[in-house]
Amino acid sequence: xxxxxxxxxxxxxxxxxxxxxxxxxxxxxxxxxxxxxxxxxxxxxxxxxxxxxxxxxxxxxxxxxxxxxxxxxxxxxxxxxxxxxxxxxxxxxxxxxxxxxxxxxxxxxxxxxxxxxxxxxxxxxxxxxxxxxxxxxxxxxxxxxxxxxxxxxxxxxxxxxxxxxxxxxxxxxxxxxxxxxxxxxxxxxxxxxxxxxxxxxxxxxxxxxxxxxxxxxxxxxxxxxxxxxxxxxxxxxxxxxxxxxxxxxxxxxxxxxxxxxxxxxxxxxxxxxxxxxxxxxxxxxxxxxxxxxxxxxxxxxxxxxx
Amino acid sequence: xxxxxxxxxxxxxxxxxxxxxxxxxxxxxxxxxxxxxxxxxxxxxxxxxxxxxxxxxxxxxxxxxxxxxxxxxxxxxxxxxxxxxxxxxxxxxxxxxxxxxxxxxxxxxxxxxxxxxxxxxxxxxxxxxxxxxxxxxxxxxxxxxxxxxxxxxxxxxxxxxxxxxxxxxxxxxxxxxxxxxxxxxxxxxxxxxxxxxxxxxxxxxxxxxxxxxxxxxxxxxxxxxxxxxxxxxxxxxxxxxxxxxxxxxxxxxxxxxxxxxxxxxxxxxxxxxxxxxxxxxxxxxxxxxxxxxxxxxxxxxxxxxx
Lengths: 306, 306
Prior knowledge:
homodimer; alpha/beta
């Protein structure tokens, strides 16, 4: 099993690259990292951004960490992205993606990704506009694969989200989306499946199960996001959490049965901004220990690694 | 009482200016609006951004709405802002503010604001660096008041947040901050007090009460954010919500006693992205009715306005 961590836990707290690199390698005992654009906004002026990205790359190398990918977090999930109802909004999102590719390459990642965006309620309710947004989206992603290749990236990664106004939101729609893109992309497009998205019961019903996604998408899955959830929200809780119900050991078995144990699985926990730093450090440490035991099946002791 | 609404409820759903303007004026029966930068990111390329802002201004005018202010939402709260530990991060934030002033002026607002930023855990733990961040912050805000004036704005508004790593986070620190700025600003700096921040018990203790903030800050308060909360998180829930404990009618009495009934109070509800649109529409409607009855003391009926 290929366990790593998304740096979401570090935002606004352990912001300096040397600080989070030390936390990940020594406190958490991991080496596989997904960088989050919540630590370095692709919009920031290029000179500032590039200096900061170079520092990220150095700190990761010094800490023996591999930054496999760079991914959007909370900040850019607030906007409609490539499905914005206005042409100006969609073109701003294209620009964001291209700037993000530069950041990804600069921090040493091979892959960049995010959810593609959300339709407005009005567009989603109109079959004609909905179809137009989908056609535009295919064109935008094809254009972006060219930019990703130019930036030196190997793949573009698209996150599935639990909203019917977003694309793609089901395994079936994801397959159609990839088929519609096929043979027109400069680099491969893969999917990121977040278990808290995939099992969101208010949208997918009480019988939603991971094997449906795993067998439906197979090798199209480029990465997983791990989180604890009650299946009633996109929770992004850690372990322990008395509200959480997700059985990680069972998920590890399902991933093995699907032959996907090499796919990187990044723990992505999102803490309230106002939560005390000590509480976050304690919970991210116990969450990683839980993932190492239950998902990676390491024989790690209860106490924190040295 | 001066009740309005922050457009946070509309993000990723009712994105088109004509759509939210219709919702606010007809469904919710309000006319005072605080625009959120979560609908129009100041980072977007100027040509796109200006065209979108012009559409916002037109839609608000057509709907009879007043956009009193423009304020940052969730997206920019993810970053450290003017307190970023790296000089490049702080300079990017200065640039964000200046771009935001242009958006605020273009949508017709008089005021622009946000929380100032957060220190990293490492900076906050180091008395020397902490003091340096504070001095730099005063300089940055002074510089920004000049830019705000040039953009044609009347005030710059700073939100108090419930984190000891952020500035300002208490009524006492807010007073000192304003005093330290005094006579060096090109436009006045006022404070936005969010009741869910001000009464966050894990930081301020179980005895935190609004009169402490109201009488401590008085006319330095430029606006309120209203939300329902359990005092254990920065909840941003609406009404009804079985978890929420905030007594809005009592707050209205406290605001009157402090002589601040003319200060705009913007309802700011943040819904999970994945929540169904119908549920959000129903809750924002009942929340506004609750605010109109309990805060503005209007005699409105239970049913939705026509």
